[in-house]
Amino acid sequence: FQYLKRFDQGCNLDKFCYEAHSVEGSPAECLQQFLLHCGITDPSWSELRNFTWFLNVQLRDCEASVFCNPDFVQDTLQGF
Fold first, then answer.
1. Measured in whole angstroms, how far is the alpha carbon of residue 39 from the centre of its chain?
2. Is Ligase among the key words of this record (predicted)?
3. Which of 13, 41, 51, 56 has its CA 20 to 30 A from that of 62?
């Protein structure tokens, strides 16, 4: 949710990193973001769950990768 919210606001996500247990927005805002970005017109709960699970895994892996760390790659992958 935090990544999607910042993406919609046009923020630079290169330096953003999720902080565990941090809470932003309401459950309704979270659901709205997932519905906007999941790519399915009328998703079921299981489709939303799969979308959020996949997105979470990908973002967690990206945050853990040294190749996606802006301090390591500096400006060589701007916007990647």
1. 15
2. yes
3. 41
pTM flag (> 0.90): no
Q: How many domains does the chain have?
A: 1
Asked whether residue 69 is assigned to any structural domain, the reply reads yes
Residue range of the domain that includes 38: 1-73
Q: What is the pLDDT of residues 2-41, one digit of tens each?
A: 999 999 999 988 778 888 888 999 999 999 999 999 999 9
* Domain contains 79: no
**CB distance 33 to 8 below 8 Å:** yes
Give the DSSP letter string of the chain: -HHHHHHHTT---SS--PPTT---S-HHHHHHHHHHHSS-SS--HHHHHHHHHHHHHHHHHHHH-GGG-HHHHTTTTTT-
pLDDT tens for 36-80 read: 999 999 999 999 999 999 999 999 998 888 777 766 666 665 655
